[in-house]
Amino acid sequence: MSDVTGTELRIVGFLCNWCSYGGADTAGVGRFQQPTDLRIIRVPCSGRIDPLFVLKSLVNGADGVLVSGCHPRDCHYSEGNFYARRRLEVLKRFLPILGIDERRFEYTWVSASEGQKWKTVVSSFTERIHELGPAPVLNPALIKQAEAIL
Amino acid sequence: MPNLEELKSAIKEHLPDLDMVIGWEQGFDPLRTSPIFMRSEADIDKLIWSPLCVHNLATYLPNLKGKKVGIVVKGCDSRSIVELLQEKLINQDDLTIFSMPCDGVVSIRKIQNAVGDLDYVEAVEANAETVKVTADGKTYNLKFEDIAASKCGRCQYNTPLISNVFIGEPKNEPKEDNYDDVIAFEQKSEEERRAFWMGEMDKCVRCYACRNACPMCVCKDHCVAQSRDPHWLTQEDTVENKWFFQMIHAMHLAGRCTECGECERSCPVGIPLLLLKRKLNKEIDELFDYKAGTLIDATPPLQAFKVEEENINERGW
Fold it and tell me: What is the complex's ipTM, to 2 decimals?
């Protein structure tokens, strides 16, 4: 099924239940070819996404994080994505000082009917993460320890 | 200090109507000061005001909500009070703010770097130009600007923004703050930046002094860093855990941090924590044209939105 050559990377996707999750479903129903690196976590609204979700994913080894919600003005809860937009933009601008490449995090808006757009979003984001390569390991000692136990 | 007597008499005048007044007194040696909670006239005589009064006393206010409290503040501390009032964490009616214009405070850490060993300090003489420290029988003449706290070099608020009793002459010579320190740090390569934080966080002992000293960290007893549900952090002292705690601290202060620098000052191992918060403040100022703790009636930018954001382009990627 995967059309990605080489090994997969770990990309975490936080998708709003009402639009983007439906959009991803539409893309699936439409049998669009998509990369399979994305692990989707369904959330009730993009406004539910605490910037710490994204930071925690990145610190714990995700190679990329994608957040997608309803288009502004189309929120199921009227204004959830307006708050999300501010938080996520601040988060994106915060990443460089931590030494994390801000291109590893992206947020976008995809509606339930936009299967084709979802395919484009997920393909171009995955492509970008593959260009950046695997995220740098934060603590080599800990990884060695985990490998020894396994 | 010429105005200290005036300040003391103003506090004496107001004390009968108040439960306590918070100020500074001499600490265990001439260099250190410590907060004092004045309840009687005898306590007021211990009050001092000098460049050694470094603590931001606003930290105590949220826990004293409901009591009639007086507080002595510098300009930067007054910003923390404005932010606390804005978030309705304290009541303005219960508060009596005594303030004087400030010429800057010292950084004990910088003095320590200059002197070497600060275990026993015999005498300190501080004025606006020099600080004379006598430690271990040797006297060091230090230039004030060399050992002043970094925040004082970019101070915009020498004159307090809010006060009930103001003593002295207002000062109107704000220095410029172009976020030079943040910009200089960001010019390093990504690997250097990451390595810098890894090294700094490796020193962290997870004492939470940064959080406890922060006037804006008001959920201390319910802090997500220590909660088991959600279990954001484990009890392991790994670099990731400690680093992630600082990310939590910074994100929770986004748009609220008044840059008093207490996190950095209280850190026993000297991690430059204010840098993370200043980065967020810089971005929030650019995005929303907002500075925390300057307007009582404003809403913090992350608790509000505009339908059309002027400075966010989320469609362009």
Answer: 0.90
This prediction has a pTM of 0.91
Structural contact between residues B158 and B75, judged by C-beta atoms closer than 8 angstroms:
yes
CA distance B90 to B109: 32
Question: Do B314 and A52 lie within an 8 Å CB cutoff?
Answer: no
Reference B267, options B210, B214, B313; nearest CA is B210
Distance CA B137, CA B147 (A): 20
CB contact (8 A) between residue A90 and residue B193: no
**Number of neighbours of residue A95 by Cβ within 10 angstroms:** 19
Count the neighbouring beta carbons within 10 Å of the beta carbon of residue B24.
20
- Name which of A29-38, A97-106, B112-121 the model is least confident about: B112-121
The span from the CA of B255 to the CA of B211, in Å, is 16
Q: Where residue A150 falls among pLDDT bands split at 50, 70, 90?
A: low
- Chain A positions touching B287 (Cβ under 8 A) are 86, 89-90, 93
- Residue A41's Cβ-side half-sphere holds a number of Cα atoms within 13 Å equal to 15
Place of tokens 């070497």: B116
- Residue A98, chain B, CB below 8 Å: the answer is yes
**Interface residues on B facing A, Cβ-Cβ cutoff 8 A:** 182, 185-186, 190-198, 224, 232, 238-240, 243-244, 247-248, 250-251, 254-255, 275-276, 279-280, 283-284, 287-288, 301-307, 309, 312, 314-315, 317
